[in-house]
């Protein structure tokens, strides 16, 4: 995450929190972030030097006025005017981190070789909520290279109980064994 993303994302979060809009604005940012990931040319358009700042802001007005909260629209205009729109995704990530921290939410990525069933996801989520005492937002990512088991990534930590990790540990042990 960039410093620009941290500073601007935190600033927007503090404003939204003070106005009791943090949930709504967070949801709008998530939708926009996903949309911009699917259409990266839009972000490039907003950074095109051949368009004036006024023209770029007009594009935002025409595309988003009445569809997003005015704070979100003005936020995008500020980023566009400063030439920072390319940091929009980082701003959204910083916003989400602050929101999650204030609301006791932990985002967990469960990496498995095959998709978890809804029942497995629910049981894992409930167990992690009991352990952490926080609300868990679970995302299952598929990676056939893990072969089996599950790897949990959250809050900069990794708990790895996958077959590939166990095989790696055995390989390391065997390579250090003196015969």
Question: What order do the helices and strands come in, and which of them pair?
Answer:
Elements: H1 3-18, H2 22-38, H3 40-46, H4 53-64, H5 70-82, H6 88-102, E1 105-112, H7 118-132, E2 135-142, E3 149-154, E4 157-162, H8 163-176
Parallel strand pairs: 1-2
Antiparallel strand pairs: 1-3, 3-4
Helix pairs in contact: 1-2, 1-6, 2-3, 2-6, 4-5
Précis, in short:
This protein has 179 residues and is α+β, with helices and mostly antiparallel strands. The chain is 61% helix and 16% strand. It folds into 2 domains: 3-100, Orthogonal Bundle (Peroxidase, domain 1); 104-176, 3-Layer(aba) Sandwich (Glutaredoxin).
CATH architecture of the largest domain: Orthogonal Bundle
Radius of gyration: 21 Å
Structural class: alpha+beta
**Strand-residue fraction?**
15-25%
Low-confidence residue ranges: none
DSSP summary: helix tally: 8
Largest sheet: 4 strands, mixed
Q: CATH fold name of the largest domain, please?
A: Peroxidase, domain 1
How many β strands by DSSP? 4
What is the molecular shape? elongated
What top-tier CATH class of the largest domain fits best? Answer: Mainly Alpha
> What is the element string, with H for helices and E for strands?
HHHHHHEHEEEH
Number of domains: 2
Helical content stands at 55-70%
Quaternary state reads single chain
Report how far the terminal alpha carbons are from each other: 48 Å
| The named CATH superfamily of the largest domain | N-terminal domain of the delta subunit of the F1F0-ATP synthase
Mean pLDDT reading: 94
Question: Which sequence of strands runs across the widest sheet?
Answer: 2-1-3-4
């Amino acid at each position: 995450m960039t410093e620009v993303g941290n500073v601007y994302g935190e600033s927007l979060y503090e404003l939204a929190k003070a106005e009791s809009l943090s949930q709504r604005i967070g949801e709008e940012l998530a939708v926009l972030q996903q949309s911009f990931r699917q259409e990266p040319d839009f972000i490039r358009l907003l950074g095109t030097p051949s368009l004036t700042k006024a023209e770029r802001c007009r594009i935002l007005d025409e595309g988003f006025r009445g569809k997003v909260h005015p704070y979100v629209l003005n936020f995008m205009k500020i980023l566009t005017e400063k030439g920072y729109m390319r940091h929009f995704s980082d701003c959204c990530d910083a916003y989400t981190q602050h929101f999650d921290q204030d609301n006791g939410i932990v985002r967990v990525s469960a990496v498995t070789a095959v998709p978890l069933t809804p029942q497995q996801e629910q049981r894992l989520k409930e167990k992690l909520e009991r352990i952490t005492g926080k609300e868990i937002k679970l995302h299952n990512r598929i990676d056939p290279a893990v072969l089996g088991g599950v790897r949990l990534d959250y809050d900069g930590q990794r708990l790895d109980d996958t077959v590939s990790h166990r095989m790696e540990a055995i390989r390391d042990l065997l390579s250090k064994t003196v015969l």
